[in-house]
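Hello forum,

I keep getting stuck at the same step: I have a sequence, I want structure tokens, and every attempt I make locally crashes halfway through. Rather than fight my setup again tonight, could one of you with a working pipeline run this one for me? It's a single chain of 521 residues.
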Amino acid sequence: MTTLGRLRDVLSLTAGDRRVQTFFTCDVGSRSVLAAGVDEALEELGAPVLPWRDAVGSRFDLALAASENDQLVDLDAPVLLVPHGAGHQKFYPGTAVVSGLNPERLVMGGRVVPAAIGLPHAAHLERLARVCAPAASRGVVVGDPALARMRGSRFRGGQLRAAFGARDRRLVVLASTFGPDSALGRLPDLPERLVGGLPVDEYQVVVVLHPGVWAAHGPWQVRSWLEQAAAYGVQVVTPHEGWQAALLAASVVISDHGSLALYAAALDKPVVLAGRGSAVTVPGSAAALLAETAPVWDVDQRPRDQLDTAIDQHGAGVHGQVMDLLAEPDADGEECARRLRRLVYGLLRLEEPADPAMFGPVVAPALSVPAMPATVVGVAIQRDGVRIERYADLGHGEPRGGLEHRHLVADLRTASLAQLASASVVVVDDRAVWSTKGWPVRAAEEVARWPQASVLATVVDETSCAVWAGGRVTILHADEPLDPIVLASLAYVRLTTLGRLPGEDRIHLGRRVIGVVAVAR
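Reply #2:
Ran it on my machine without issues. Output:
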């Protein structure tokens, strides 16, 4: 899946050219466990796929490859080889062979296999010359297509943040490659600790797993492992699309020695490492430098403290040395597109199109937001309103900082029986009933079922919530979009402390101050 993603970046440069017909093929004889999911992804794309035996038996004008481990020597075509990650930062496990630059694959039968090797940086050309001198003359520094594509879409950051549901919240990306040295290999419960230890109204967590994780364990198993975190709002990006959008939207990235840490640094994002390097990291590489300079996650510290420190103390250009080693300077990605398209069309022996070379835009993946089962809520009463903090009811985090009036809010659709039985506020998805004369009967039924609850609530729209308490319904309206269930906690605390709902009120939600109006029905 990683090679398919990189090839799609390159192929965006020939999209729309009716002189070019593209086929896909997989070397079935060299397939590893990491190839799982490729066939399904190609079918979803509607891509024309040739069996490998047919591909090697036909003549093509150009073959694009993002791994030297296929039997590229069997193809009757000039081969353009590009890296499938952030350059050449790792050794193949248990060897001294640099990933992507295996001399035994680059030179076979006494001849250099690739007609051209697209490299992200001059430092990688020097590395190629050291590890495989015969192939060095085929090296061409073009830049990094994935990074160039992201840099060309940086202006979409706000739009992508909204697509992930972050809006005014800080977006935390947890990126993990595969293996015991990976982020989740070292910290398997980190998704749950993040979602349980961060206020849900101030942070959004997104998990991005290397396609190899999905391939090795299977989608069902991965989703099962992340089921609890996903139920409480963690967005899990599939291996098909979304990792580039997540990095562009990120406020901070927690990662390991994988490529996403390097891409985050190159995008000038705060980076926190899940561990100090890995045995597979090439000394002197950008990955090695990042491992020496970036802060490391501390399991004994509060997640919120570490992330706020990383974000607030991050200075622009702090990863400058890493950027200098990763890819040629290319602020907007246009130079990489120009160089790579020139190389592709030169190998095709076609005249380049007249329009400017550019990569396709980074777009947000399709996401859904489930109803959070239950939140533990703490409230501090202030002169001009109340300050509210909500935490996922996972047992890993709860209101801190002197907040009082703690209570549990549980959603009837997704909460457990235990959560509903102890909830002070029960959320019901039944707005049609609240707008009719049937609401007293419905409310009485729910109160009888959950006697611990003193407030019933349902969402009206993105700024309003209807609450039932004390035999009457009140609609609370916020003056800007928010999770309307926050208004139910406001109602609970005001009714508990004042015995009534003020006509006008304010909520302090992280850095936001939101006005609220209560209207009795």
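The mean pLDDT is 89. If your local run keeps crashing, start a new thread with the error log.
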